[in-house]
Amino acid sequence: MHNARVAEILSALTHDRADATSLPERLCAACLSALPITGVGVALMTVDGPSGVVLAATDGLARQLEELQFALGEGPCVEASDHGRPMLHSDLAVAGPARWPRFGAAVIEAGVHAIFAFPLRVGAIRVGVLDLYRDTPGRLTTAELADATAFADAATVVVLHLQDHHAFSAFAAPIDGRAEVHQATGMITIQLGITLAEALLRLRAHAYATGRTVSAIASDVVNRRMSFDGGEPGTMTQDRP
Amino acid sequence: MTSREQLIATTFVDLADTLVADFDVIDFLHTLATRSVELLDADAAGIMLADQHGGLHVMASSTEEARLLELYELQNNEGPCLDCWRSGRPVARADLAEMRSTWPAFTQRLEDLGFHSAQALPMRLRTQTIGALNLFRAKPGRLSEADLGIGQAMADVATVGLIQERAIAAGELLATQLQTALTSRVQLEQAKGVLSQRSGLPMGQAFQLMRDYARSHNRLLSDVAAHIIDGSISDDQLGRSR
Fold it and tell me: In the prediction, which pLDDT does B56 show?
């Protein structure tokens, strides 16, 4: 199943601490070796578009791709993040220049023929984008696409947790897909006046600290047995270990 | 035409209309779920779709109870929707006694929520089954043959529409289409939480409010969800649409 593969990818990243590379760098390297591609990059994205921060890239060209999209404000990663869907361009020479006048021309010249961009999103939370590129045209197979989406989900967890230093220990688990987890995230956002991303991190950190599952805590929040603002019955204080 | 015939006609047109620029899978599946309840002798409906790994996801439901029942089926790996998706055929039992012997845990839960009948119709095109439509009734027994025929036709048209949409959007990309749908679904849940906490309404009512607003303002449910989250639709505005 999908989440088992995401967990496997995350676990390999955390256990392989032999060198001094960062988590996003290791994730990109793992993605590169698992798929028939030439390079991988991860960049931060905001609601307004690319942030200009490239977290990791397997090579100079992968980095250049991210920087170009930031500089020009156009390209598949921008669209992937906006639409919340993967953008798969298996032959840029055919469609690229018409679609993105400046970015399209620049990438062809740089020798990039296919780009597969995956949004790193949890609902309304946008953390970044995972870009895979190839120096030859051609599609990814369904199995390769499934694996690429697993890498994107793993990258979402990595990037989300990079923004929160306290909760880093809670990092290795894939994001629980249950509806209650996301409902609870929405509730905590309002309870604490923080962003959705921060609320999700708080929820995960609390689960980790109390040794309970994220979905169990979420269920308590949704059923109003527990509140993160400390003002309601069954508050955080009482639930703390 | 009677008003029911008119609604049937409108529903088929709506379900076939997937090749539009702002097509939204979640909105589309909610239409299928709610129209199933309006047109058939059913009290609640839910829809599951499969991903490329064969995992099923609850994508839409007409009520919170239907959603809970579908989640329960997935967690316990038992129930009509699962059997239907696996076999690609309609699944029903004649009465509660037969339901209890086939799906003991599921039927118990069904009765706890006030229902006495559940059956499922496949969402299938030729050899490909992409999911199932679950229909729940407060009364015991199966739907009439006439209702079943209409229900299956709705599920068929919706399936053709979805497969078409996937084909147009990106060729082979069941994988990416489902990811889009899941992103919308997650965003919807986040918005429900935000609204429920701000307004003090239970989750189900918060969702109903969002859906009423989307319908009366002719906007996509996922857009409404995004704007509830970023605060550009206020609770007052939502309340006024009632």
Answer: 83
Task: State the pLDDT at residue A208.
Answer: 83
Alpha-carbon gap, residue B212 to B216, rounded angstroms: 6
Asked if the Cβ–Cβ distance from B183 to A121 is below 8 Å, we say: yes
Q: What is the CATH number of the domain that holds A146?
A: 3.30.450.40
Catalogue the E-assigned strands of chain B. Answer: 44-50, 56-61, 117-125, 128-137
A11, two tokens: 């676990």
Residues A192 and A218 in one domain: yes
Classify the complex by whether its ipTM is higher than 0.90, answering yes or no: no
Q: In Å, how far is B156's CA from the nearest CA of chain A?
A: 24
pLDDT score recorded for residue A235: 43
pLDDT digits (tens, 9 = 90+) for A205-238: 898 888 898 999 999 999 999 999 875 444 444 3
DSSP H or E segment with residue B100: helix B96-102
Residue B182: list chain A partners with CB under 8 A: 177
User: Are both B10 and B125 inside the same structural domain?
Assistant: yes
pLDDT at B21: 58
Q: Which two tokens stand for residue A205?
A: 């950190």
Chain B residues with CB under 8 Å of a chain A CB are 51-53, 55, 57-58, 67, 71, 170-177, 179-180, 182-198, 203, 225-226, 229-230
DSSP A54: E
Residue span of the structural domain in which B209 resides: 182-239
Tens-place pLDDT, residues B155-204:
998 888 777 655 543 334 455 666 777 788 899 999 999 999 999 999 98
Q: How far apart are CA A146 and CA A151, in angstroms?
A: 9
* Kind and range of the H or E run holding A63: helix A60-72
Q: Please, are residues A85 and A79 in contact by the beta-carbon 8 Å criterion? A: no
Q: For the domain that residue B142 is a member of, what is the CATH number?
A: 3.30.450.40
Q: Give the total number of structural domains in chain B.
A: 2
